[in-house]
Amino acid sequence: MVSAARIPEQGAAIDHRFIDEIRAATAGESRLEQCIQCGTCGGSCPSAADMVHTPRMLFAMARAGFREDVLRSNTPWMCVSCYFCSVRCPQEIHIPDVMYAIKAIATREGVAPESTGADFSRTFVDNIHRYGRSFEVGLVARHYLRHYPFRLPGIAPMGVGMVTKGRMGFVPHRIRGVAGLRAILARAGELEAAGLGRVGRP
Amino acid sequence: MSSYLYYPGCSLSGSARAYAESLAAILAPLGIELREIDDWNCCGATEYLTLSPLRGYALIGRNLALAERQRNGTSTLVAPCSACYANLAKTDRYVRDSAVLREQLNGALAADGLRYTPGSITVRHLLEVLIEDVGLDELERHVTRPLHGLRVAPYLGCLVSRPDYDGRWSRHEQPHELDRLMTALGAEVVDFPLRTACCGGHMTQISPNTGFELIRRLVDAADRCEADLLVTVCPMCQMNIDAYQGEMNHHFRTSYHVPILFFTQLIGLAFGLDPKALGIGTEIVSAHRALGRIGIEVPVAEEEAVPAGHAAREGRRAPRPQRLPMPRLDEDDR
């Protein structure tokens, strides 16, 4: 288990509009304001043990306006997007989507917690911009070299196995329409920057 | 001959090559034609949604728009990868539900002259198509080498039966579709309680100890059920449990050996097809012994210098960690 959850100290900056900011940044309807603090989410979560705050606590903090603490929490980064919480939530809150929204805000503001998660996402997305497809070898190799160099000897036999069994291509496939794809993503970025806060409203 | 639009996803030409090969092998006998979407792009897994939800949806939306443009008598889009399936289905559902998201998504797609009409494409997972459209009776009719005696743990993973906004699956947590399919092939389906538990997704990359624990739970549960192997419908699940099982064993000082194959590979075997043509042998945790038990000869991989007698069921079982199966981090990870 991780150490005891850190409760924000009294006097910390409070942002009462933070819950609305999250709701607005969530695609679809988040229903976050409907949380009844039952804890079904954390009880259903396969990685809750590694979270500093359970989802329930994170949502209470968001509602109380502890913006900074929510954005710096490791909880959204430990979410594995398995949707157990969301199908069990009696209030039908779209929990994984809320986690994506919190991660996006935290990444944009550069306050994501010490985690290789944001970096992994960036590497993954870089490959998409470059090729239009994922490039498994480049992704895993770059990520391991940067973050787990000491693990490389341990993982080497697996890598060799993947290569000899023809499961790792060393030449990425580039789609023909990669320029068009980049234009779409750039436009989406502009729309998001201009209208952030509109994505979520049905 | 039934025809479908097809979105293979990136891993089918890489780590999940065996899934693509075995799928290709069973299409002809089943009379299915898959028409790959021309110039499709990566669905972004969960990574793009993490950094920028709208760009994430635009990325997925481009595939839906291309599929809509290439509709020709069919509007059903089949995805074999659970993550791709969940992303495509969820995006279609969200743009149907939200006028604002619809407007923004199409605003972005317009940058490359594309547009998506919500609901014009029906996204379905390959498993559902085989069960609902082909049907278990038809599948059973093609079985020439029933998998009698093979104990299979049906592992569906997360993203097929959840979030399931369109109610396509029997249950969210313990769906029985894969069990029924395996039974039709003659396999013995074990009562595997973790059939929709998480394989860890990208946790093996961003928080390895979290990922190893999730993998351990799955292989341990399969081992306790005395399953010969796990069967999966998802490239990510296959990759985590197969490729990272060794590192997981190293981490926990265990010696589990639980192979995991794609359901299309087992369908192909039951149809009497050549194991090599089904990508059998490309798994890291070899299924050689498991399949040998039911008389299916498969190519031996080089790492299988296994001590004699290990093939006996008793010998297969990994030593148990001397503690309760609870989540736990090492001291230095606190």
Describe the 3D structure.
By secondary structure, chain A is mostly helical. Chain A has 2 domains: 96 residues, Orthogonal Bundle (Fumarate Reductase Iron-sulfur Protein, Chain B, domain 2); 77 residues, no CATH class. Helices cover 54% and strands 0% of the residues of chain A. Chain B is of the alpha/beta class and 334 residues long. In chain B, 42% of the residues lie in helices and 10% in strands. Chain B contains 15 helices and 8 strands. Chain B is globular and about 55 Å long.
- Helix-strand string of chain B: EHEHHEHHEHHEHEHHEHHEHHH
CATH homologous group name of the largest domain in chain A? Alpha-helical ferredoxin
Mean pLDDT of chain A: 89
Q: Strand order across the biggest sheet of chain B?
A: 2-1-3-4
The CATH architecture of the largest domain in chain B can be named as: 3-Layer(aba) Sandwich
How many alpha or pi helices of chain B? Answer: 15
Radius of gyration of chain B: 20 Å
Short description:
The complex is a heterodimer of chains A (202) and B (334). Chain A has 11 helices and no strands. Chain A is mainly alpha-helical.
SSE layout and pairing:
The complex is a heterodimer of chains A (about 200) and B (about 325).
Chain A: H1 18-25, H2 40-44, H3 55-64, H4 67-72, H5 75-78, H6 84-88, H7 95-108, H8 117-131, H9 136-147, H10 152-164, H11 178-195
Helix pairs in contact in A: 8-9
Chain B: E1 2-6, H1 17-30, E2 32-36, H2 47-51, H3 53-69, E3 76-79, H4 82-97, H5 99-109, E4 122-125, H6 126-134, H7 136-141, E5 151-155, H8 177-184, E6 188-189, H9 203-206, H10 208-224, E7 229-232, H11 235-243, H12 245-252, E8 260-262, H13 263-270, H14 288-292, H15 313-316
Parallel strand pairs in B: 1-2, 1-3, 3-4, 5-6, 5-7, 7-8
